[in-house]
Each structure stands twice: as structure tokens, then as C-alpha cells.
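For concreteness, we quote verbatim a single protein encoded this way:
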Amino acid sequence: MIAEPHIGRLPAVKRLQTRAQFQAVLGGSTVSKTAHFALHCCAVGVSGVDANPSVFPEPGFWLGAMAPKRWAKRAVTRNTIKRQVYSLGAEFAPLLKEKAHLIRLRRDFDRKVFVSATSDALRAAVRSELMDLFGQIVGPLPGKAGLDPSQVMR
């Protein structure tokens, strides 16, 4: 009996890694915005005007996160934001189209409210806003409508 390792797993999320990939997605359209984030998107297929096979070597769901130092001064805060982006991106991947997506931090989180560089309160705020950002495109995740903020992924 041969086990099939892909059954029950989320689809593989390819991460944006090169400058050309980030620039290609930023050149695409802005799909949705929240108070702190913007979601950019562009096509990755071989056919089409936006597609560049050298930038995206294979089709699929591509995801990137940008948290500039301008808006998140501390590295631990930037890393916390990026972790939340990639974990939620993997959850929403089955519902999103096979395109390249980039989530960009476009405003800082108030340091008077979030005193700690990384805290459960900051994680919960980032996660809920990212859920809203993805939810504007595909709606809420099935079975996750009443997510308790204490169930924040670390």
C-alpha cells in the first residue's frame, strides 16, 4: 500500500523571493486594503501580458510579505507580521486563485497601544486585520467565523 502524502495537506505556497518578483506583483493591481495592509496581485501564467516566465518559473499560488522598516522599526515586529501573513496565506491558499499575491504593510501600528515589540495583542490585531484583508476577496474561512483572539498562531 502506497501512502499519498498530499491528501489532507494545504496546497504548497511558493514564496516571492527575488526583487523582480516583488516588483512584478507591485506593478499589478491592488485588490484590497485595510487600515494597515494592502494586498497586491498579478497573474503568473505563461499566457497573458503580465506573465513573465523568467520571473515566475511555474504557475501556482505565490505569496510575499513586505514589512518596511519605515512602518515597523523593530525586526521582531516585522518578523511577527510576516509570520502571520504566511500562516494565514497558507490557510486561504485553497480559496485564492493561482496568482502572485503580496501583502504590504502600509502604516505603522501605534507604539503607544502596542508597547511591546511583539505581544499577543499585536499578533491578534495583525491576524484579525489580515483575516479582513483576505476576507474582502474570498469571504471568511469556513468553520473559522467566530475565531477567538486567544487562538492566535505564534
